[in-house]
Amino acid sequence: KNVTTMLSIANFGIGNELAELLAASLATLPLLEGLSVADNNLTDVGLVPIVKALTKCTRLNSLDVSRNKVDVETAKALLLYISSPGCSLTHLFMANANVDDKEAAEFVRIIATRRNFKELDLSENQLGSHEYGLKYCDTAGVALGHLLSDSRCSLETLKLSWNMIRYKSAIELVRSLAVNESLTYLDLGYNRLGAEGGDALGDALHSNRTLKVLKLAHNNITSRPCCTILSGVVSCESLVEVDLSHNPIGGFGARLLLSIDLKYGDRVKVDIRNCTLRTSDYSCWFDPVKPKKEYTLNLKEPYARCVCIELLRLVTAPNDEHTIEEFQYCGPDDTAMRDINLELYSLAKIRQAELQGTDGPVSPREAENKFEEARNMYKETAGRIFRQYDLDNSGGLDRNELAVVLNQIGMEGSTAMVDQLMSIYDTDGSGLVEEEEFIAFLLDVKANNNTIEVEKPGDRFLYDKDANSNIQGRPVPYFPPNVGTVHIKLNVDKTKELVPQSVSQHSIEGMFDATQSSEDRIAIFDYALSVMKLQFIDAHSFYRVMLNEIGSSLHVLARLLPCMATPNDARMLITYATGNDFEQMHLLRGIMGAVYFVYIGLPNGFYRLNLSEPADQACLKHLRDLSITSMHHRKKLNLGDTSQDGNWMGFRNCVYDGKHIVLSEEWLEDFPTKGKLDFDFVHINTITVMDTEISHFRLFRLMHGLGMATDEKRRRIFEKLAADKEEGRAVSKGTGFRHTEIRASVMEQASNHLYKLYTTNHTNRMERVEMPISDAEKLYLRPAQQQAQQQQQPQQSTKAPVVLAKPNADTEKEMKTKHHDVLGNDTSHGGFVKEMLESGTVEPAIICERMLETLKFSLAARFITSVQLALLVHLFPDGFMPCGDFSTYRVELIVSLYTRVVDVINMDFVLKELESTEYAMLLFRLGWLNIWNPIKAEGRVCLDLSRREERQLARIMLVLNFAEPGNSWQEPTFRPTRTSPLEDKWSLPVAWYCEPTFPSQGILSLQYFSGRGCNVEDCAPNAACRHTLMALVLAKSYSADVWSGSKSNMDTIELMVQKMGCSLSFLTANHHAPAAGKPH
């Protein structure tokens, strides 16, 4: 039972004399299958007898003569043995055996005659040393290339490390991989492939389907060949391991490598340890992060073909907005370019279409009804789950209860998941998640699981539509040939639905492991982050590793926040890293500058940017992308343009180097990198509510913790919120009835102040000054934070809920008392503000500043209603104080939180809380069309027809006056200029209903009246007309108020106006932006 067929006397140093004795005994070992005499200090004297004796060992399949001196005589003996009929050798190991090019070439030619050879090891020899000393055909590289190119080749493992394979020999060798179908392991480490060899290797990998392991360490592979090789690695789906360590791959190489590693990290591991990144390779000109619009590429050149392949991959990526506008090919036999009609094949979309059935297209209304029906059914189930695990019947789940319930329903109830829930919903620091919030979380998880299907790379590709016209089923992917010329023109499609790239934890951990010993590890991480969008769980891993490298948590956050997938993810990372420490978050804001609130989801505000600063450039790019995305979203839905200048952009009141300017899409795409730029930004987008607004109870706790509300006012606040919400819902149906209207005097004063704001020289506009934390604040800040941290510790509640007097039915649910409801205690979100407010020793401006910061961060991840925002404005202490030009703290709060308001249609509740000057400031910064809506047209308006958005609003008023019965325009006045005297008994000219004679100058003032909901003075609203006109403004009607089949878009508005007999047009060319550089 101890019989072995392997004889190994390696590393014994037996010498030639004993080797001769060994040779004499080999004939007595007929069952011998493997022999190793490696590292025995042998020369021809000892090796030749051994090799000659092997002819008697007919079952021998493995021979190792490594680390011995193989000279001419041994080489001849080996050649004779291998070529003999009785030789059954399949594995030959000759590492570090003094084998040169000529000897190796002879071995390879003999091996080529055998059809069962599996493994050849020629590492640590002199292959390539005679590249120019021998004829081209005599080099080992060429001979190996011929061997691998032979269709009958059976070689599976080839080890050639630590040689000097280079130049033409290297090219010939690696090119053979394109046709080889047997090799699975290739070690070319520590050779000299260089740029040409690397390019040839990458080009060959596109056609290889068998190679599994490729080792290329220390081959002087720079950025260009690295990109070519990595492109081939993606195509070669059999590869599982690639070693590119110790190569000067540079920045471009690292960026593409990390992009591939993150996309395909579960399939192939790429080793980049000790690669040099801080080198430049000017021959590597393609940047996949910033592709050009047009390319002409010679496919015969490996790098050019690589660029073509990567461009095709780029447009098929679900998280990229580029598309192919034109793709032309000219082959070697073609006389001119011909178009190739490339179409995208997506298995996920095909499956989605199959699930929709064959009943024809579903209307948006029907789709919404089906979605709501399924959502409500799942909501009931989620509610039952919540109540089942709310063991103490408190109306909220604490951390421990959350962990249990998440595990029970099949989700990971880890600390990170619980932290994620708490970070989103626990805005008041109570340590609880309410029932409605928990249900909303589960609904979003379910929606994401239903809508996002992760496609394998092979299930999403481009194909030639004409070439696949007769093919049934799955088409054949298009792949560029290695000859001919292509011309590619790209287009950026902002309407393309992007699916965030999912990154597996395995890929991230693999990157951390691969870069562990790299001197440029942080640079590698920066390159990786440039091609990633991180969710919180992934960013959490990066944060821990980068913190060890950098040391400063705030500087790590500054690197990670630009790469977060969503503002919620950014906010969770900040909460995790700072523990809601106000001082830390304040310092982080100082490090990041203006872009901080953009990343956490509050982009609205005033910006003063120095375009020579990289941080400010990044801020402008981010705002530009938000604005362009919103523009295409509204265009896709055929909604109107609510911008200031008629260019769909969210930039208002722009001043560049002291001159008024219009920031067009073209200007923003290629903005200058110097100069000062001031502007207001408003995110012009229609909010689709996929989450519930913050509960009144949660909002009250937050306000109480800030000192904005007391427990005695709790019932009154809840009742007012409920009543205002009910009123807003009733009025938003378009009935024409309004409980209260903004006073006419306020509107007149606001109009005059708005005129002053526009005519004031705001080229030197004062911005809100960021106040550093004072010593007086720190007296209140640190004790409050220590108490908040104690409250945030996981704990089981043994405290019975406090019993209140039973409220009325409408507010009972909102006022339900939760455990931990100790309203007098500070919360983790700014309890020190309350202490400063009550002390009376801190300046009111500082208190306003800290309260504004706390509210913005606390509510950045939550939706709020207009009545809730109105309550915040009403109770904001000293909020009327100015903070810079064109703003008070209350106005700043409204502008900042405007993107979180779910019912802009009820914005009038907020406006009623403002003074006339604040109303004017809000109109100046947000714009009429983003605040006002035709559903609630009643009330006084004062419009300057020289401004585009106010002229658009006047057209809406004209259409309503025409469509609704009675005298809707009451007490109208018109002055050609603001200083012109009022005309007695002015009446609306009929000529105004024609676009050519509609005035573009003048001051129009009127009181719009629609009968107060009961046909007073024979006036009545036309609800259908009003809902149709909603497409012109930012606000959105409730879907339940719009009957089935009706549409609110620009086409229906134009058609409606034409049927009325008016020649007004909301799309006419003179509505668009003035020339750049002109004042508004």
Please characterize this protein's 3D structure.
- The chain is of the alpha/beta class and 1080 residues long.
- Among the domains are: 6-286, Ribonuclease Inhibitor (Leucine-rich repeat, LRR (right-handed beta-alpha superhelix), Alpha-Beta Horseshoe); 295-355 and 456-491, no CATH class; 938-1080, no CATH class.
- It has a 10-stranded parallel β-sheet. It has a 4-stranded antiparallel β-sheet with strand order 11-18-12-13, with helices on one face. A 4-stranded antiparallel β-sheet has the order 19-22-20-21.
- Helix 18 (536-550) crosses helix 19 (553-560) and helix 26 (714-731) crosses helix 32.
- It is elongated.
- The chain starts with 5 loop residues before the first strand and ends in a 20-residue tail after the last helix.
- The model is unreliable at 358-365, 788-829 and 1069-1080 (pLDDT under 50).
